[in-house]
Design a protein that fits this description.
Radius of gyration: 34 Å
Distance between the termini: 102 Å
Helix content: under 10%
Number of strands: 20
């Protein structure tokens, strides 16, 4: 018996999943009683995100996967977005990009929906680093013995870029800048 539930109707102000079950009423008077059929209450649960997608930093060309975990009454549907724009076909609990480009860097979110409502994940930031590329090669030079010479390179890519100059395949100690200078060259 439900304490205080003694009227022809019974109202629950805000149902919880623990209210799910079979409800009956017994109607009595001086001549006896009658019991109703059971009315089953099924309480569906709105989606809740229990595992947020994580920020990731990867190199261009690599693959990436974002995932979310959610609870709520099935069926749950998913819609991933990139910088606020829905991604066509991205309707699973995870979203993968096979080979990312720098243009894929940004914020990824997912909305999880069921018959009771929806929940939006936190934004997961994808940072796409670029591999180094030499955009300006060091130039061949011919000079006289005793003169100074500088070799320089220009490169792009995600900072910090590090440099290591070599002579005939052997690294030159301390030659770790975009340019390398010899103050007075010798024939060796």
């Amino acid at each position: 018996p439900i304490p205080g539930a003694t009227n022809a109707s019974y109202t629950i102000g805000a149902v919880a999943t623990t209210d799910s079950g079979a409800y009956t009423v017994v109607v009595t008077n001086g001549c006896g009683s009658a019991t109703s059929n059971a009315a089953t209450l099924t309480v569906d649960e709105a989606p809740a995100i229990t595992g947020q997608p994580a920020d990731q930093t990867i190199c261009a060309g690599q693959g990436v996967t974002f995932s979310v975990t959610a609870t709520g009454t099935a069926p749950l549907t998913y819609q991933w977005s990139f910088n606020g724009t829905p991604i066509p076909g991205a309707t699973n609990a995870s979203y993968s990009i096979g080979a990312v480009a720098t243009t894929d860097g940004g914020a990824y979110t997912v909305v999880v929906t069921n018959s009771c409502g929806s929940a939006t994940s936190n934004a997961a930031t994808l940072t796409v680093d670029e591999a180094p590329a030499i955009t300006g090669q060091p130039a061949d030079q011919t000079i006289c013995a005793g003169q100074g010479v500088t070799f320089a390179v220009t490169a792009t890519g995600t900072a910090p870029l590090t440099y290591q100059w070599s002579f005939n395949g052997t690294p030159i100690p301390g030659a770790t800048n975009a340019s390398y200078t010899i103050g007075a060259v010798a024939t060796t």
